[in-house]
Amino acid sequence: MTDTLALVPAGIDTYRQPVVYMNEDCHICRSEGFAAQTRVRIDLEDRWIIATLNVVGRGAWLDVDQAALSASAWAALGARAGDKGAFSHPEPPVSASMIRSKAYGDRLDQAGFAAIVSDTLDSRLSDLELAAFVTACAGERLDEPETVALTRAMQGAGQTLDWGGRTILDKHCVGGLPGNRTTPIVVAIIAAAGHLIPKTSSRAITSPAGTADTMEAMAPVALDAAALRRVVEAEGGCIVWGGGLALSPADDHFIRVERPLDFDSTGQLVASVLSKKAAAGATHVLIDMPVGPTAKVRSEKAAEALGVRVSAVSNALGLNLALHISDGIAPVGRGIGPTLEAIDVLAVLRRAPDAPADLRERALDLAGHLLDLAPDGVAGQGRDRARALLDSGAAEARFMAICEAQGGFREPGTAAQRIEIHAPHAGLLTSVDNRRIARIAKLAGAPRQKCAGIRLLVRLGDRVDEGQPLYELHAETAGELAYALAYAESQTGVLTLSEEGP
């Protein structure tokens, strides 16, 4: 008997959580006392990972002398066909006691947070332990010094891009507003103005589209740090997926656990945003905070509290920061979903007569504010400069150049399945529920299916006739279309119409 098993790929996507599958009759399971959910160390040559065990019943698909690895575990271990791994109990994570301390109300310093971040990246912490950490930090349980310490610990765990002391502009929206895809437009304007704006963005986790998803409908986004630098040096800006760049890499692990819990934590939100901005080498950052009853930031009071914390942590990190409070009452543009949002972005950049005016105006507000924030900016003149760059076609030309530098531009596609949702009665459109309209788009397949989502056909304040189309569902398959349609038809108040006639 040995402590090794043949490694095989399970072909199962567990996102960022390494998982190992072993037969219940495996001699290692019996001798080591491994059971379901046991944390297991797997060594292969000079590499190792810690994975969570799932036990496969006897006579099932896995032989007793094999261990199957999830996709993330296989990649992290660098396994190949024919490899054998050694299995053992891992040492208890050093940071477990720090998580318990925080759960009991103690304050942590940067060393404590750094230990938690390090154990997270090494997969030493189980999802239960990560959930305990996220819970212990929820609400207002992280004070200002702790938020600074966590931000620095998260940034320090990955690489930080060095731009040689040059001014680097960046922007971030705290989210919660479907269709608010201003980033590609802002990046194009800022780069056309001669500034550097290396924009790293996320893919959607719980929304119908992230900026990276929308950009990927037009150009490649999975660039490494060297390719990112080449694009920025050539064109002044980029819009790439940050997940492959090791910039604040622990953040995705925390988000993976935090999202299903649906906890609001000012400290963790600030640490998430600013650790990535600092890691990207930003010197001047604009934070957009849409405020609305169904947005992520639901009140002016909440926006004020978040702004105070963001400003304090930015000062501690040496970032020049500006805040932009925007209207978060209803979705922006017409499209909700990667391709549909990309179509809106291109319409604005191409100055199409039917381009969504609200998306254009929001992008100009943000680009103007960011130009004002730059060291050579003149207060109050940024928006006019941004408009001139957009209206002249300079922003469009720069966006196309950025796309080509990232691997080539492609026109967004169209969904195979579509159906219109009609008004049940006449009235004035008085509200849109951001959360539920986003859920419908997700049920239609977004963002996994790039062309899936919703195309809005009416705007707030429009008078609508009975039977008039309110929005159009887009899906790639009939099954996904039916799934989204069933939910949409079961809901009231997604789009609220007053009872008065038009």
From TrEMBL:
Instruction: List the catalytic activities from the record.
Output: thymidine + phosphate = 2-deoxy-alpha-D-ribose 1-phosphate + thymine
Q: Name one GO molecular function term.
A: thymidine phosphorylase activity
Keyword Coiled coil included in the entry's annotation:
no
Biological process (GO), any one: pyrimidine nucleobase metabolic process
Q: Gene3D superfamilies from the entry? A: 1.20.970.50, Nucleoside phosphorylase/phosphoribosyltransferase catalytic domain, Pyrimidine nucleoside phosphorylase-like, C-terminal domain
Give any Gene Ontology cellular component: cytosol
Is this entry keyworded Transferase? yes
Q: What is its EC number?
A: 2.4.2.4
* Span of domain Pyrimidine nucleoside phosphorylase C-terminal: 428-495
Keywords per UniProt? Glycosyltransferase, Transferase
Matching entries from InterPro entries are given as: Glycosyl_Trfase_fam3, Glycosyl_Trfase_fam3_N_dom, Glycosyl_Trfase_fam3_N_dom_sf, Nuc_phospho_transferase, PYNP-like_C_sf, PYNP_C, Pyrmidine_PPase_CS, Thym_Pase_Put
- Per its UniProt entry, what is the enzyme's top EC class, as one word? transferase
Protein name per its UniProtKB record: Putative thymidine phosphorylase
Organism of origin is Roseivivax marinus
Output the lineage of the source organism.
Bacteria, Pseudomonadati, Pseudomonadota, Alphaproteobacteria, Rhodobacterales
